[in-house]
Specification:
With about 775 residues, the chain is an alpha/beta fold. The strands form four sheets. It has an eight-stranded mixed sheet. The chain has an eight-stranded parallel β-barrel with strand order 17-18-19-20-21-22-23-24, surrounded by nine helices. The radius of gyration is 30 Å and the shape is globular.
Length: about 775
């Protein structure tokens, strides 16, 4: 096959498979398209059955379709099993001569000599095997093998998503259909375990996010639908009239086609039938419209393929009116788990606080607005769950594992009991730890280690103080910026900062200057880059916009008047010159305010150590500033070159990685040599085992989310300084993260505090 033809075929097949409404239709489309593209006589797909571990005959063109689902092979069994076990292609000119060949009567492959199979691998897991066969006795050439391998690799993610969707298909073998258990992977947004009922919230006029839902009143749904359809007809007629003078007759005719498509003998009739079968109107529109879109997009004729966009547009118009008709108060179950394409703060606000127990968002990261709010409110959250089929999640029983970033749909009784026990243990631990609130965080030999809180919202304050926070180690000043549709004024900032400073006074509050970029983009100040984490973010943005930096610093300084409990921290610093420039602007703002009559003290200024360059220049940085603070989340991802918000590689993100621990020790040593305080803020600081190691390294304070404070305090109060140093000495000799974690777990077991580790980390729920 020519390279250009191969590339063209690849793109077309992947695009069309992406639009398939189900796993089976995706597989049927693959075998049809691959067979045609390669000009072979047979193309088949065998898919892994996760329950049995066998590879099941799932789709074919060229073999007997009556045996689909009835033929299966275990790993190492037959040619399919060989491909799966070896995880590499198998190319044979006489398939029946291979020692692993297995004959299945009636499948019809005995007349095909040539065999080529390629594994379908997604995130190191063999999902299935894609095969082609021919009667001619020959080996497939290199270009054909390359095409099939490339196709398998490209389709793996698409199939994984379709498979996840298919996992929720109802099993109708009994009078009472039940949903299958399924597990979906995302990234942790807020820690904790939640169990409840899924409530799907769909984005305005987005067909893909409309959930399946049973109509409460079919007649009312039909009325909603036809009234919405009438409004769309009026809109289209008005649009046609408005544009009549600017369009040729054949172009104006398109509006007549639109109106005909809405007729009760066309789309309108099909949607009505769906509603009469029991679907609510929005779900019926989604189902019918997307089915037609899928059909049009598969057509060979380019003109007809383009009509898919017209059908989708009509569907969106109808859906928009339906959503307006259906707007109003909604009843939420007692344990509601909100799930949506991209959750927003306003969506959270619609759910009664006492009924909201968990959140799941398909888009977004651990730094999204919703994730920040969830941590402040203590709501277990998973972000970036890209494989969840929203349409089928309504009212599903869910478990949200905010520790491991996993969602379990329709869990088994055993799994439900496991997570229920974790929730009960967490509640019991919380009760036990309440008594620690007013006790000092110190080792058994009286070495003190203050525990601070990471915060960004006023709602964090009460919870932080209740948990015994001794100050704020990281106040994320970008949060007020994120929650607005414009830059907050200097006075608005001053009021927000003043509330924080007064709430914690006389304790110190460390305010980080505006840290946007990376995965934190303001809606009114978008930063679009090919590689945002290595781009324009943190101090780089604010130094390029001194007007933003100066306004923020002036607001901080004004807010601190009479309190003097503020520290200013600079994010994403990589060069000494950035420190000099920022300090110059801070002193300029201070001088101007003094001249204006404000009674102020110049606050301590520090830098965040969160990039490798800062690790190696930690002593030089320490000489220029008043304190250092490690941003462990970013430092870990930069050291390991792992985006912790990317589900494909999130499993490689290990805070206990030896390189991370060595960097952390080097930073603490550098600060101590220069006589400057050094703190750490990030998820690592909130891990009880890690906190003991950080104590031994010489960190002066740890900053974490409020929920972690009691657990960390208990861990610190359970060891002596000498024990902590012994643990650190042993850990620094270990060579991988798993060994470090295992060692720390065993030590915490001996100390009787292993229960304070994140529950999800002790036993992988997926092993049950």
């Amino acid at each position: 096959m020519a390279d250009t033809k191969m590339l063209s075929s690849l793109r077309q097949i992947i695009q069309e498979v992406n639009t398939a409404p189900s796993l089976q239709k995706a597989l049927d489309l693959i075998v049809h398209k691959v067979r045609n593209a390669m000009g072979t006589e047979v193309c088949s797909v065998y898919m892994l059955d996760s329950t049995s571990g066998d590879y099941v005959f799932a789709a074919t063109e060229g073999l007997n379709p009556e045996l689909l689902g009835k033929v299966s092979l275990s790993i190492n069994e037959g040619l399919i099993g060989q491909v799966a076990a070896r995880e590499e292609p198998l190319n044979l000119d006489r398939a029946e001569k291979h020692p692993a060949y297995k004959y299945f009567p009636e499948i019809g492959e005995e007349s095909f000599n040539s065999f080529l199979g390629a594994p379908i691998i997604h995130q190191r897991k063999v999902l299935g095997v894609l095969t082609v066969q021919q009667r001619e006795t020959r080996r497939f050439d290199e270009s054909e093998e390359a095409f099939l391998v490339t196709m398998s690799a490209q389709l793996a993610g698409v199939i994984a998503h379709a498979e996840a969707t298919g996992a929720l298909e109802q099993v109708s073998s009994s009078a009472n259909p039940v949903r299958r258990p399924a597990r979906f992977k995302g990234v942790p947004g807020a820690p904790g375990i939640a169990m409840g009922e899924a409530i799907v919230v769909s984005s305005p006029a987005d067909l893909n996010t409309v959930p399946d839902r049973v109509a409460v009143d079919i007649d009312a749904e039909l009325e909603f639908f036809w009234s919405s359809l009438a409004q769309v007809r009026i809109d289209i007629e008005q649009l046609g009239t408005t544009l009549a003078g600017q369009l040729r007759p054949e172009e104006r005719a398109l509006f007549d086609v639109y109106l005909q498509m809405l007729d009760d003998k066309a789309l309108g009739g099909e949607i009505s039938d769906k509603i009469r079968q029991g679907s609510w109107a929005q779900g019926a529109v989604r189902s019918v419209i997307l089915e037609h879109v899928y059909t049009f997009e598969r057509m060979e004729d380019s003109y007809l393929r383009e009509r898919a966009a017209d059908v989708r547009d009509l569907g969106r118009r109808v859906l928009e009116y339906l959503q307006q008709s259906n707007a109003g108060p909604r009843d939420y179950p007692e344990n509601s788990i909100l799930i949506g394409e991209e959750l927003t703060a306003s969506m959270l606000g619609e759910v009664p606080t006492e009924k909201l127990v968990g959140l799941v968002s398909i888009k977004g990261s651990s730094n999204s607005h919703v994730a920040i709010m969830a941590r402040a409110l203590g709501i277990p959250t998973v972000m970036g769950a890209v494989d969840i089929p929203l349409q089928r999640m309504e009212k599903a029983a869910l478990v949200v594992d905010g520790y491991n970033g996993e969602i379990h749909s329709n869990p088994s009784d055993e799994l439900s009991e496991y997570f229920a026990n974790i929730i009960a243990e967490e509640q019991q631990l919380s009760l036990e730890l309440e008594s620690l609130r007013d006790l000092p965080c110190e080792t058994l030999d009286k070495h003190s280690l203050p525990l601070h809180v990471n915060t960004g919202l006023m709602s964090d304050v009460a919870r932080s103080l209740d948990r015994g926070a001794q100050g704020v180690g990281l106040y994320r000043t970008e949060v007020p910026f994120l929650l607005r549709d414009r830059f907050p004024t200097e006075e608005e900032q001053r009021q927000i900062y003043r509330e924080q400073l007064e709430a914690f006074e006389p304790m110190e509050v460390t305010m980080r200057t505006l840290d946007i970029g990376g995965d934190k983009s303001l809606p009114y100040f978008p930063i679009e880059e090919e590689n945002p984490f290595l781009g324009w973010r943190g101090i780089r943005v604010t130094l390029d916009h001194p007007e933003i930096f100066l306004s923020q610093v002036r607001a901080m300084l004004k807010a601190s008047e009479g309190l003097n409990n503020i520290r200013i921290m600079l994010p994403m610093v990589t060069h000494l010159s950035e420190i000099d420039e920022a300090q110059g602007l801070i002193k300029r703002a201070y001088t101007e305010l003094i001249d204006d009559g404000y009674d102020l003290k110049l606050p301590p200024v520090g830098v965040m150590v969160e990039v490798p360059a800062a690790v190696y220049q930690a002593r030089a940085f320490a000489r220029k500033v008043d304190f250092l603070s490690v941003g462990s989340n970013d430092l870990t991802q930069y050291l390991l070159a792992v985006d912790r918000n990317n589900t494909r590689v999130a499993g490689l993100y290990h805070s206990y990685h030896p390189s991370v621990l060595q960097a952390l020790e080097a930073i603490a040593d550098a600060a101590n040599i220069e006589g400057k305080p050094v703190t750490i803020c990030g998820e690592l600081a909130g891990e009880p085992g890690a906190a003991i190691l950080l104590l031994a390294m010489g960190y002066d304070a740890l900053s974490m989310n409020a929920a972690s404070i009691p657990k960390v305090k208990q861990a610190i109060r359970s060891v002596t300084s000498e024990q902590a140093e012994e643990m650190l000495g042993r850990v620094m000799q270990l060579e991988d993260a798993e060994m470090v974690y295992g060692y720390m777990q065993s030590k915490l077991d001996k100390l009787g505090i292993s229960q304070y580790l994140s529950p999800g980390a002790l036993i992988a729920a997926g092993d049950l």
